Amino acid sequence: MKSIFTFFLLAGFSSTGFSQSHSCCTASATGPSDPTVQFASFSTQETFKMSHDEPQPFEGEKPAAGSVITYPTPDGKTASAYFIKSEKPSATTLFVIHEWWGLNDYIKQEAERFATELKNVNVMALDLYDGKVATTRDSAGAYMGAVKTERAQSIIKGAIAFSGEKSTILTIGWCFGGGWSLQSSLLAGKQAGGCVLYYGQPESDPEKLKNLNADVLGIYASNDKWINKEMIAGFEAAMKTAGKNVTSFWYEADHAFANPSNPKHNKEFAEDAHKKALDFLVKRIK
After folding, report:
1. How many CA atoms lie within 13 A of 241 on its CB side?
2. What's the CATH fold of domain 5-54+65-282?
3. Global pTM?
4. How are beta strands 5-8 and 122-126 bridged, if at all?
5. pLDDT tens-digit readout, 197-232
6. Phi/psi at 164 (nearest 5 deg)?
7. Domain residues of the chain, as ranges?
8. Cα 281 vs. chain centroid, distance in angstroms?
9. How many alpha carbons fall within 13 Å on the CB side of residue 146?
10. Cα dist. 146→47, 140, 141 in Å?
11. Is residue 171 within 8 Å of residue 142, measured between CB atoms?
């Protein structure tokens, strides 16, 4: 069994567990343990919405290194992604999954940054909102709450097929996309190579995690009232039971501290977390 390492940065993570209003997200038509449904239900909580400041306008040149592609999905529809093809043929594809605002220019910019820094990797910034991009808390909550698990899984499965059956799949995501980063690695099966999860809802079922073929790097905020110490301790325990490897880093910050669209973006912590994510991913490129 691989060991589990937990590092606590800059001291002091919250000992606050879920309050009653935060623990209501346990049952759904998809099943009582569906983490994506649990996280989506936060969209109805005013405190969760108000914890996200309205995204600041994108400044600078629009992302242009990639292009928007369309690919088929198993449900008979199509999906789109912002795709940056490696200059040289690559056997590795990184899935970048957006936060609750959707696939906006900030996420495309992050995708381009990873494409530059990782070099010979294909990068796909997936669109789990099917073209919708939020600019207000209310619209973000509505879009996140409307995501159907089956549709999101189909978008991801289509992206895996697009990448090729011999491609190694790496995943990274923030907030809403953090949880879907882990789910994407689960869906990738034996093609999964590594997963980075920024303060997203983790999978807590050890039986499901037994099918995970990727190490996980988790990045969390100590002042996060939703993805908190209690939840992550449960995730780490489930990973240990499943015989999987997870490394967790905590920053004394608030939820979404690493999101560049957040007016309260903590640049120092975000850069440190990015370096850790980059080091983790580089070691897993095929």
Report:
1. 13
2. Rossmann fold (3.40.50)
3. 0.88
4. unpaired
5. 999 999 999 999 999 999 999 999 999 999 999 999
6. 105, 145
7. 5-54+65-282
8. 14
9. 14
10. 19, 10, 8
11. no
